[in-house]
């Protein structure tokens, strides 16, 4: 299990990186944390002739907490964000999700942008990106910079809107202003750290009377892309979220999905899990405690 | 870390005491010496081209492009290889089921090796392997085990005939009569999915041929009886032309590190190319085409019993799917013959056993050698009987467990259980839980909406590795010994060195032997060096298979040390002018019991033996070097005509108590409490025994909850990576409580039975109450 | 078409090592095949088993999931470099020996790296933290119990290394540890 030969290019600047991508096009792959790409190359499921390493670009590691949004360079480390208290305060759902991503060793190398571009339908960060309506910034030499909503970014399993000459440079995670913002993330996997058979995330804003003022919800692991449900989320607004409502919304959400089957979970089981996961995160986040709780259980 | 408290241990100075394993010092500093660490100048590396199909005819192979690539030294096909070597033996009498390292003409499972490339690096070998062009024509395949038994099923080996490679129906005792006389009968099916032990080290073989000496040096991660002999035979070279270096550390095996086909392939290439060659399986090769998959069984069982819970008789039909070729796999139906009634007093048994071939990866020997699936099938039935009768399953077990006064106990299939106290272990395990507390916890979990239950399992694991299943399964095979041996030497400076003749895959044999030798010679075990001799220097060994080394290697080491000790006593008696029975041996020094001042110290005795022949007793060999080769206690006999045989000598008992819950919404299983009580006689190294017990339980949990080699209908392995074949991690395996009990075996040197290395692979049925 | 080798410099166990490598050489193959540091093991080569864990700039990572060129200019600690001095054991290494936290030894280097990293940041971890820290390291021998025990023991206040060997002058990781027995 050794990678096919390739040419290695260490990007010296973003311009240099974009220049390389422009030149090599489809033959190039951008290397971020490599926690998925390197094993795929070892199995020769990926065999770029040029590997563009963007890990040393300081401009892709900037973390900036501004009014209304946290901006994160594409190669910001997962572990660095997990340990960043300020980021956690601003966008708690990201850290809730990161605790489910792989293991400490993989999060030490894995990057935020790498996980998004890899676009595994079961992965945690893509789900959070669609739930929070994150904006992804892509750059190319030919067309310069463009922004794309997470919703439009994920096109299918391991398939995104990134053109072959483009590089994801940063992600903007919206901050919900005001008090009473609560989040929860839950998933069921065969083992802790495995890709989820079904996952769910939500971010709610609950006023002092327990009434939901704002809501965002989503499900991962069922369709080819993570799904958010803005219309259903809107139905939560103005309500006190109890179990009945949570379950009803979860059922409606799952009805809109078309899960597939694999060795560990068939479509029906995935649907059931997703209903449970979404119900649970809604319950957890609507229970009065700061930032809700993260229900944490791997299927053992 | 605390020493066991049992009177049997009072007789010992080092046995049964906490002691750091000798091996650990090298492992924790990264100084282990594994087969992949052997560095040889000019080493070539092998990569495999494997069949993509479960069944196909090989139409053509074009190796020309691959051969022309830089760094490539050979591209070997089955056509060439099979002409130059002997086939591997199938384990049972089925000569047409020929097996070679590389396929010739046809492939019989997806992943079967077709071509091997040898190149200067593994990466170059893989580059070239991609360029080997093979044309196949798919042929009908059979994946379903029972489907393969049908008359019209595609035949995996047409020359052999039907896919059932071995079948025998044993009847031990008046089964029909007992069934007719019993008040009740239940019938059930138990399914054991294909799983394995999957060591973290894959298989590695490194070979070097010398034209000058005509010796093939082999460094391989093996755990296999008769490996050097079989390798030489298949390569058509004399046995003394193969030198297997047993001093490599093996990164886990639990039965599966066989690798004969790997070694034949590499040995052939090394000899052909005149260069050292290594094949280090990658994980994909390992899971799909290595010796990596275990029993895959369907049990149909009937139990006959009375209203009071007395189980009278059992009919067991066992169908084992061994995959496309036969190694020792059919014999895994054989070991359970020696414990076919488990720990229970069942008076008669019918055992109808089938080995079936399908177009799947071949099965290999796996921890427990077939006992774990059988234990699972029996335990399933015990709980079913209890439920049928509305009887408490613990009371039912107590009613049927063999009593401690009944040993040695002869079971219907001809094996005598050596010793045990099953009920006491059951009781202490329940108290350790403690049972009433976990019942309350179970009820609390149920009140929270969880499905919760307590699993109880009592079962046996035979130990001491005899070969008795070989003649039982193949009348042409008359093997009746599976000896093991040890050679001990005391050098001129008084240091003690022991030699063993096999490799170690985590069982801490150096610790075992040095503890035993230290015990007999009363020398600090840390001062005893233990070496793994190579196969040309070694005495006979049958490797650490069959839960045998504490018994067999321990017994051999004790035997050799005792000979040395008696030699020292004889020298002392001669020099002190007294009879030996007047002498006391203490810490290596010898003195006259009534006159302790008249003594000979260790150093003086050693010097006499090495230098002062004039002070030796007449006729005694000079020097201090002795070997002992031990036959398996209670072994040595062929089976009777109706298939009764003394299988293994010793029988360890274990009792598992587990509180588990399942989240009804997600199916997530949580283990809240796990207690395992066990009795393996005297534990020579309690830390080692406990380690194997924890690990055995973890294997069982993996098999029960996570691990499965799954196949598609087309015969493609669906779980061929660590992302699909799920090994339990520290977050899935719970904290485990071990309860020790000691019923010394009357058959062994110190009363030891198997450390639970393979003894505990029982799969819990955690939720019988659901 | 083979890719041209590149020169890299990596500080390994405190020593700067400069070598030419093919870009496709993974860091673990570099450590084992180029530097002869065979203490780090390969178990799956696809980022699951954790046997190849090393410290990269002090943090535990999987050395099968990165190419050696990526570590250019960085510092790496392998199992050979965990001991404070040649001939000594670290507390974690010593506690592994004491609680029998290993059997075949194959996953052990990766486990030690994971545990070492844990106690650097969390001097007195609880059981859940220990299990999380080694959750990415698979072991088939121990059922993990004695590994958890080892970390607890090593982090017990006042735990002293019991290893009998005397310290030997020189860097850890360069020469075999001195044998304690028979001398």
Task: Give a brief description.
Chain B is of the alpha+beta class.
Give a verbal description of the structure:
The complex is a heterotrimer of chains A (300), B (770) and C (183). With 300 residues, chain A is α+β, with helices and mostly antiparallel strands. Helix content of chain A is 34%, strand content 25%. Chain A contains twelve helices and 14 strands. Chain A is globular and about 60 Å long. Mean pLDDT of chain B is 95; it is low at 757-770. In chain B, helix 7 (227-234) packs across helix 8 (260-273). In chain B, strand 9 and strand 10 (215-220) form a beta hairpin. Chain B has a seven-stranded mixed beta sheet with strand order 3-5-1-12-9-10-11. Chain B is α+β, with helices and mostly antiparallel strands. Chain C is α+β, with helices and mostly antiparallel strands. Chain C folds into two domains: 6-81, Ubiquitin-like (UB roll) (Roll); 91-155, [2Fe-2S]-binding domain (DNA polymerase, domain 1), CATH 1.10.150.120. In chain C, a hairpin with a 2-residue loop joins strand 3 and strand 4 (59-62). In chain C, helix 2 (91-99) crosses helix 5 (145-154). Mean pLDDT of chain C is 91; it is low at 173-183. The chains are: A alpha+beta (300), B alpha+beta (770), C alpha+beta (183). Chains in contact: A-B, A-C, B-C. The A-C interface holds A 1-8, 10, 31, 34-36, 38-39, 41-43, 51, 53, 55, 79, 102-106, 108-109, 192-193 and C 1-4, 6, 22-24, 26, 29, 45-47, 50, 53, 56, 59-62, 64-67, 69-70, 72, 114, 117, 132-133, 135-136. Chain B: This is Aldehyde oxidase and xanthine dehydrogenase molybdopterin binding protein. Chain B: It comes from Advenella kashmirensis (strain DSM 17095 / LMG 22695 / WT001) (Tetrathiobacter kashmirensis). Chain B: Residues 29-140 form the Aldehyde oxidase/xanthine dehydrogenase a/b hammerhead domain.
The string of secondary-structure elements of chain C, in order, is EEHEEEHHHH
> What is the class of the largest domain in chain C in the CATH system?
Alpha Beta
Q: Give me the CATH fold name of the largest domain in chain C.
A: Ubiquitin-like (UB roll)
Would you list the SSEs of chain A in sequence order as H and E? EHEHEEEHHHHHHEEHEEEEEEEHHH
Q: What is the number of independent domains of chain A?
A: 3
Number of strands of chain A: 14
How many domains would you count in the coordinates of chain C? Answer: 2
Compute the separation of the termini of chain A in Å: 29 Å
DSSP strand count of chain C: 5
Strand content of chain C: 5-15%
Tally the helices of chain C: 5
Helix content of chain A: 25-40%
The CATH architecture designation of the largest domain in chain A is 2-Layer Sandwich
Global morphology of chain C: globular
Shape-level CATH architecture of the largest domain in chain C: Roll
Q: Count of helical segments of chain A?
A: 12
Largest beta sheet of chain C: what is the strand line-up? 2-1-5-3-4
Q: Please tell me how large the radius of gyration of chain C is.
A: 17 Å
Protein name (chain C): Carbon monoxide dehydrogenase
Cofactor (chain C): [2Fe-2S] cluster
Pfam families (chain C): Fer2 (PF00111), Fer2_2 (PF01799)
GO molecular function (chain C): 2 iron, 2 sulfur cluster binding; metal ion binding; oxidoreductase activity
